[in-house]
Specification:
By secondary structure, the chain is an alpha+beta fold. About 30% of the residues lie in helices and about 20% in strands. Strands 1-2-3-5-4 form a five-stranded antiparallel sheet. The protein is globular and about 55 Å long. It binds guanosine-5'-monophosphate and zinc ion (ZN). The site of zinc ion has 6 residues, from helix 1.
């Protein structure tokens, strides 16, 4: 993909602080971290988001996330770690090349990866569940 910054970074055209690389992926330090040590995993093959990615890429991605996250937990001595992946502008995606965030978390930190808990009217969750099931 021409003019995709993450294609250029993932494929080494633009240098980056790389923490992991293999044939299919590069994990780099996020330039504007939610917390110190925030890493993003970029597939080398372009897809705009999760839905457009190849199954094989998605299968492998979570294994790489596990490996890099484990290394982060050890190196950063964090208390927890959020894996976050945004699809679409409405969901907060700003770079339209699939990537997975690994955000180290510390007790009492001020990072916000959260939402206000909502609620359903009687039968609403079941109705939505049926709609989703119909579209599988
Ligand atoms: P999104 O909001 O799309 O889920 O996440 C995009 C992420 O990419 C943001 O956390 C942002 O800081 C990071 N980012 C954007 N441009 C660059 C860049 O050129 N280099 C690096 N290392 N991170 C970037
Ligand atoms: Zn790309």
């Amino acid at each position: 993909m021409e003019n995709c910054i993450f294609c250029k970074i993932a494929n080494g055209e633009i240098p980056s602080a790389t923490v992991y690389e293999d044939e299919a992926f590069r994990a780099i330090m996020d330039i504007a971290p939610a917390n110190k040590g925030h890493v993003i995993l970029l597939p080398k093959k372009h897809s705009a988001n999760l839905f457009e990615a190849e199954d094989e890429t998605l299968r492998e991605a979570l294994l790489v996330v596990k490996r890099v996250s484990n290394a982060m937990m050890k190196a950063l001595h964090c208390d927890g770690l959020n894996v976050v992946q945004n699809n679409g502008e409405a969901a907060g995606q700003t770079v339209f090349h699939l990537h997975l965030h690994m955000i180290p978390r510390f007790k009492e930190d001020t990072v916000k990866v959260t939402w206000k808990q909502g609620s359903y009217a009687e039968g609403e969750a079941a109705a939505l569940s049926e709609e989703i099931k119909k579209n599988l």
